[in-house]
Design brief:
This protein has about 400 residues and is α/β, with parallel strands linked by helices. About 35% of the residues lie in helices and about 15% in strands. The protein has 13 helices and twelve strands. Strands 9-6-3-2-1-12-11-10 form an eight-stranded parallel beta sheet. A four-stranded antiparallel beta sheet has the order 5-4-7-8. Helix 6 crosses helix 7. The protein is globular, with a radius of gyration of 21 Å. The two termini are about 15 Å apart.
Length: about 400
């Protein structure tokens, strides 16, 4: 994908004032336009799990009715039948079609509003589906019973993360021409202009944990489908506007796969300044065909991260940051000044919020996915400051 030099803000619709689409979503688009931003990045839109996580959604295709601004709006039989015809592959897995029609209406209005103001909507495709969810039930032939998904020990969890999602039966998917993935991306690009593919490294190799394990420690690497799934999707849908989330334990085969497909990868400034000069996250190593983030939904806010740093790492970071700005704005300026074609920050970092506004703490339950922005929090002053920075850095 040939990224333009652009910038934007990550904010899930549940974090809007009111937590829904409608007026507050349109108002946020207006604020982005006033701030000179051209990308609004969201998390997955499917029905979240009982903990609020959109990464264990009950459907890889259906949108969550909880996002509707008008959940009781009238739906005609003709609209329902038209939706069924257009979404025949997956609609049988999700019986409540009326809500999907309502969502389509509200989303179409939002996307048109964004397009009119030069703002692209960026989505997120989780690699896995929820255990026992609509996809798992409706297409059992595409899933394996041999293990569940997770990741090995990392900076977030000493025993790894045991996600528990069902693993794919990749030979079965390949034998079907990757039709499920083709239709999943078709649905995704009906909603979004570009998307981030979560856990991209799992397409090269994925961490498989035996069933009934209580941690991810005893998992092992299994070979993924490689480029074949994306090539099958592109053969039918055309060039894919995809950013690969290539964070974590990234091996040469993952890098080779991403480059073969031509997808930009990610750099996260909060992962820099740690004494590893070869790291892709270090500002000196950023590339143009890349997306740079101040932080992600899985990391702390910039101020929360800054408060957690030891003296040596803070000193290292300070050498790279503009000294005259507050830390959160200094990090935004560093990202915006990067050669990376796309620069993104969280709304929390524009607002200068601390760890209380963190969206997710990986490997925990009960405290994540709850942050919501106060009405009027993003002001005209914020917009003017971000627009000036955006213009100065040529985004």
């Amino acid at each position: 994908m040939d990224l333009p030099r652009a910038s934007g803000v990550q904010l899930h619709p549940t974090s809007l004032p009111g937590g829904r689409l409608g007026k507050s979503a349109h108002a946020f688009v207006d604020w982005l336009a006033a701030a000179g931003q051209t990308v609004w990045q969201m998390l997955p839109l499917g029905p979240p799990d009982r903990h609020g996580s959109p990464y264990k959604s009950d459907s890889a295709f259906a949108a969550w009715s909880g996002l509707l601004a008008e959940p009781q709006a009238r739906v005609s039989e003709e609209e329902v039948e038209g939706f069924r015809e257009r979404n025949g592959y997956w609609v049988g897995s999700w019986p409540d079609v009326a809500d999907q029609v309502r969502f389509s209406r509200e989303w179409a209005a939002l996307r048109a509003h964004a397009a009119d103001r030069g703002v692209q909507l960026m989505g997120d495709v989780p690699i896995y589906v929820a255990p026992g969810g609509a996809d798992h039930r409706h297409w059992p032939q595409f899933f394996s019973d041999d293990g569940v998904a997770g990741v090995p020990p990392d900076a977030y969890a000493k025993t790894g993360q045991l996600w528990g999602n069902p693993l794919y039966d990749w030979p079965a998917l390949r034998a079907d021409g990757f039709r499920w993935w083709i239709e999943r991306f078709r649905r995704t690009f009906e909603l979004f202009d570009l998307v981030r593919v979560d856990h991209f490294r799992g397409f090269a190799a994925y961490w498989a944990v035996p069933v009934n394990e209580t941690t991810a420690l005893k998992g092992g690497w299994e070979r993924g489908p490689g480029a074949a799934v994306f090539e099958a999707v592109a053969a039918e849908l055309g060039e894919l506007a995809v950013v690969a989330e290539d964070l974590g334990d990234i091996t040469p085969d993952v890098v080779a796969l991403r480059r073969r497909l031509g997808f930009p990868g990610m750099a996260v400034l909060q992962f820099a300044f740690d004494g590893e000069p070869e790291s892709v996250h270090e500002p000196a190593n950023h590339e143009s065909h890349q997306a740079v983030y101040t932080g992600t939904h899985d990391s702390d806010t910039v101020l929360g991260w800054w408060a957690s740093l030891d003296k040596s790492r803070r000193t290292e970071a300070r050498r790279a940051l503009p000294e005259e700005a507050e830390v959160n704005w200094a990090m935004i300026e560093l990202a915006w000044s990067s050669p990376a074609r796309l620069a993104m920050t969280q709304a929390q970092d524009i607002l200068g919020l601390g760890s209380e506004a963190r969206m997710n703490v990986p490997g925990t339950k009960g405290s994540s996915w709850k942050w919501r922005m106060e009405p009027g929090a993003l002001t005209a002053d914020h917009a003017a400051r971000l627009r000036e920075l955006t213009e100065t850095t040529g985004r």
